[in-house]
């Protein structure tokens, strides 16, 4: 009698990412995901732009090329400074966040930007939310070899699951995302 291998399909989650750095981070997360639940993190590079155009492009991809993914499994991953530069008020940002939700995406902001988010992976830095202008300089104090955009391999060599979890301690959006994909 031979054993039959039962293949369990992995649930896809679409990550619409602002740029190369965010795509690399999603690929890094895929590498450290536990086997259960079986997930496949699909990342799409939106190549920057303003938040509204990125959401339009993400929605178009979700309804087209990635229409096999359930609506509840969409994530829009962008830098917070992108919103602050584009919108004039907190009300406009809230309106945008509601539109993201209406299109069934979970909005996850890298605060203040990707480098500031990476900084919080380091010990005793999890509460640090540097100004946008200081984020890369602060990050390079802990990671002198950092070059933008990092690759998934570089992120994997630099960070562990524990450090990813540390980064989410004081960031509700990231904590919610990591919980959703089984890393918390």
Can you characterise this structure?
- With 184 residues, the protein is an alpha/beta fold.
- It is built from 9 helices and 4 strands.
- The chain has helices at residues 20-32, 51-63, 80-86, 90-102, 114-119, 132-142, 152-158, 161-168, 172-180; strands spanning 11-17, 39-45, 74-79, 105-110.
- A 4-stranded parallel beta sheet has the order 2-1-3-4, sandwiched between helices.
- Helix 1 (20-32) packs across helix 7 (152-158).
- The chain is globular and about 55 Å long.
- The relative contact order is 0.16.
Low-confidence stretches: none
* Major sheet size, sense and barrel closure: 4 strands, parallel
Structural class: alpha/beta
Count all strands and give the number.
4
* Total of DSSP H or I helical runs spanning 4+ residues: 9
Strand content: 5-15%
Task: Indicate the multimeric state.
Answer: single chain
Quick one: overall form? globular
Report the radius of gyration as a whole number of Å. Answer: 17 Å
The largest sheet has its strands arranged as: 2-1-3-4
Helix content: 40-55%
Mean pLDDT: 94
Secondary-structure element sequence?
EHEHEHHEHHHHH
Distance between the termini: 40 Å
Task: Kindly summarize this structure in a few lines.
The chain has 184 residues and is α/β, with parallel strands linked by helices. The chain contains 9 helices and 4 strands.
Properties at a glance:
184 residues; alpha/beta; four-stranded parallel β-sheet; 9 helices
């Amino acid at each position: 009698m031979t054993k039959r291998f039962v293949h369990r399909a992995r649930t896809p989650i679409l990550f619409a990412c602002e740029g190369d750095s965010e795509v690399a981070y999603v690929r890094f997360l895929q590498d450290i995901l536990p086997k259960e639940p079986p997930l496949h993190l699909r990342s799409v590079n939106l190549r920057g732009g303003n938040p509204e155009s990125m959401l339009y492009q993400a929605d178009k991809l979700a309804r087209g090329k990635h229409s096999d993914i359930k609506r509840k499994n969409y994530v829009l991953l962008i830098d917070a400074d992108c919103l602050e530069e584009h919108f004039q008020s907190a009300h406009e940002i809230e309106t945008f966040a509601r539109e993201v939700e209406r299109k069934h995406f979970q909005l996850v902001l890298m605060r203040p930007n990707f480098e500031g988010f990476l900084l919080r992976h380091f010990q005793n830095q999890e509460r640090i939310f540097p100004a946008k202008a200081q984020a890369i300089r602060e990050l390079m104090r802990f990671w002198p070899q950092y070059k933008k955009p990092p690759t998934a391999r570089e992120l994997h060599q630099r960070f562990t699951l524990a450090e990813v979890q540390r980064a989410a301690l004081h960031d509700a959006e990231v904590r919610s995302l990591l919980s959703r994909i089984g890393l918390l």
